């Protein structure tokens, strides 16, 4: 699965030692650039990947990730782990944001004008134009 968004938070790096050796992990939060933005937190696991991706707050990135769930004491917890992160150029990010806004009909006044049919006169307005001065609507 993939998602594109802007990095809005970089949480502190976590590290430890397991039976296989030392490990590092870091959590990031991105926000999509849609009409109704959504946020997603994901983890990058491994010192080599942390150095390779080099993610900073404010960058627009494309994240490829896997979703998994694990059970702990009868409850399930989701885990979203990134396996690839690519930085999106600013120009491509602006084009993607503009195209998603246009697809939703936002920020396009010509689209909004065509959403409604032309206004028709009511029976009362037509009667007033003909010179009929009674107040009855029928």
UniProtKB/TrEMBL annotation:
Residues 97-138 are annotated as: Disordered. It holds the Pfam family DUF3127. It comes from the Bacteria. Residues 120-129 have a biased composition (Low complexity). This is DUF3127 domain-containing protein. It comes from Segatella copri.
